[in-house]
C-alpha cells in the first residue's frame, strides 16, 4: 500500500484491452498506456475517423457491441482488461442488457485475464444530502431525477452486481472503481458548465446547497490505473475514486468566472442530482492520493478548450 501515486507500479509490456475506448475517460488512458504496452481499444466505432485517431496513437482498434454480446474481436489472451464502457440510451431494455449483460459477456470472454478493472460511478449512492459516502453505504437512483439519464444509476448498479458475480464465478481478479467527476482537456461536467456560462444558460444546483463532488483530473486517472490493477481481487475490490479535494459546483463555477470574466447563473432546484461527497480512506490506502489541485486542473481545462477566454 502507498499514500502517493508517485510510487505506483507502471504497466509495461502487457497486452491491455481498453473497452469503451472512445469515452472521455478511456481515451487518454488508452493512449498513455500504448506508449509501453500492446493496447487494444474496443468500441462500436461507428465513426471511422475515431478509429484512425486511435491507431495513429498506437492503439489497435476492434469493433464490439456489448448490447448484443458481440465481443469476439477482443483477444481472449489479454493480460489486463479496463472497462470504461457505458450505454445511456434511456431505453431500459437496451441499457440493462448493454451495461449488465454486456459486462457478463466481456468478463466471460476474458475469464483468464490477470486483472479486470470495471469503472463504475459514485452516482449509484442513494441521495442522502451531505452524507460522506463510504463503499458500504446504501445505493440508489441518484441520476433518475435527470430525464436524460433515467436509466444511468440503476444500470450501473446492475453492472456492479454482474462484476461481483463474474469475479467469483471465473476467479477473475477484479476492481470496481466508483468514479466521481472526471475532467480534463477532453471535457467533463465542469467543461459543460463552462459552455453553459458562455451561452448564458442557467446551471442547476441542488436546493440543499452546496452541491459537492470530488473532481479528478485525467492525469490522476491515468496515473492511478496501475494501482487499480494491482488492487484487483476475488471477491472484487470496491473503491471510491475521486480527487482528494471536495469541491462544490457553486465553487468551481465561481472560479471559472474568475478565470474568464463570465458570470455563472446558478439555478437552485430539487430536479438535479444531490451532493455526493465520498470517503476516500480506502482509495488512499490502495491507490494513493491525487496530485493535480483542482484549481490548476480547471485552469488547464480552460486553456485547452477556450484559451481566448482566460483573463487571469
Instruction: Calculate the terminal CA-CA distance, rounded to whole Å.
Output: 40 Å
What multimeric state do the chains show? single chain
Query: At the fourth CATH level, what is the homologous superfamily?
Result: NAD(P)-binding Rossmann-like Domain
Helix fraction, binned, reads 25-40%
Major sheet: 7 strands, parallel
Number of helices: 9
Structural class: alpha/beta
Radius of gyration: 19 Å
Estimate nothing, just give the exact number of structural domains: 1
Secondary-structure element string: EHEHEEHEEHEEEHEEEHEEHEEHH
User: Would you count the extended β strands for me?
Assistant: 16
CATH architecture: 3-Layer(aba) Sandwich
Query: What is the CATH top level name?
Result: Alpha Beta
Q: What strand order characterises the main sheet?
A: 3-2-1-4-5-7-13
In the predicted model, the low-confidence regions spanning at least 5 consecutive residues are 1-8
Summarize the structure in words:
This protein has helices at residues 26-33, 48-56, 92-109, 152-169, 189-199, 218-230, 249-260, 281-286, 294-305; strands spanning 15-19, 38-43, 59-63, 80-83, 115-121, 132-133, 174-179, 181-184, 187-188, 202-206, 212-213, 215-217, 237-241, 247-248, 265-269, 277-278. With 312 residues, the chain is of the alpha/beta class. It has a single domain (5-183, 216-243, 279-290), classed as Rossmann fold, CATH 3.40.50.720. Helix 3 (92-109) packs parallel to helix 4 (152-169), helix 5 (189-199) packs across helix 7 (249-260) and helix 7 crosses helix 9 (294-305). The longest helix has 18 residues, at 92-109. It is globular.
Amino acid at each position: 500500500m502507498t499514500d502517493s501515486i508517485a510510487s505506483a507500479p507502471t504497466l509495461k509490456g502487457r497486452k491491455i484491452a481498453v473497452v469503451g475506448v472512445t469515452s472521455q475517460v478511456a481515451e487518454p488512458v488508452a493512449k498513455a498506456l500504448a506508449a509501453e504496452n500492446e493496447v487494444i481499444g474496443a468500441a462500436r466505432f461507428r465513426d471511422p475517423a475515431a478509429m484512425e485517431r486511435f491507431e495513429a496513437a498506437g492503439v489497435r482498434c476492434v469493433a464490439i457491441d456489448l448490447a448484443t454480446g458481440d465481443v469476439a474481436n477482443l483477444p481472449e489472451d489479454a493480460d489486463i482488461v479496463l472497462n470504461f464502457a457505458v450505454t445511456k440510451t434511456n431505453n431500459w431494455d437496451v441499457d440493462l442488457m448493454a451495461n449488465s449483460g454486456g459486462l457478463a459477456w466481456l468478463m466471460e470472454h476474458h475469464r483468464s485475464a490477470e486483472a479486470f478493472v470495471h469503472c463504475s460511478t459514485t452516482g449509484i449512492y442513494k441521495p442522502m444530502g451531505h452524507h460522506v459516502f463510504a463503499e458500504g453505504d446504501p445505493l440508489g437512483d441518484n441520476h433518475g431525477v435527470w430525464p436524460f439519464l433515467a436509466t444511468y444509476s440503476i444500470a450501473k448498479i446492475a453492472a456492479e452486481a454482474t462484476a461481483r458475480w463474474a469475479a467469483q464465478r471465473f476467479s477473475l481478479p477484479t476492481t470496481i472503481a466508483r468514479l466521481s467527476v472526471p475532467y480534463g482537456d477532453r471535457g467533463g461536467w465542469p467543461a459543460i458548465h463552462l459552455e453553459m456560462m458562455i451561452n448564458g444558460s442557467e446551471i442547476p444546483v441542488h436546493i440543499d446547497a452546496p452541491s459537492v463532488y470530488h473532481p479528478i483530473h485525467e492525469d490522476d486517472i491515468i496515473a492511478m490505473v496501475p494501482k487499480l490493477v494491482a488492487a484487483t481481487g476475488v471477491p472484487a475490490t470496491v473503491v471510491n475514486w475521486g480527487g482528494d479535494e471536495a469541491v462544490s459546483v457553486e465553487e468551481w463555477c465561481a472560479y471559472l468566472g474568475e478565470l474568464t470574466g463570465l458570470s455563472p447563473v446558478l439555478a437552485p432546484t430539487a430536479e438535479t442530482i444531490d451532493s455526493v461527497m465520498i470517503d476516500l480512506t480506502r482509495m488512499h490506502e490502495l491507490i494513493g492520493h491525487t496530485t493535480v489541485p483542482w484549481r490548476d486542473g480547471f485552469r488547464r481545462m480552460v486553456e485547452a478548450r477556450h484559451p481566448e477566454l482566460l483573463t487571469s
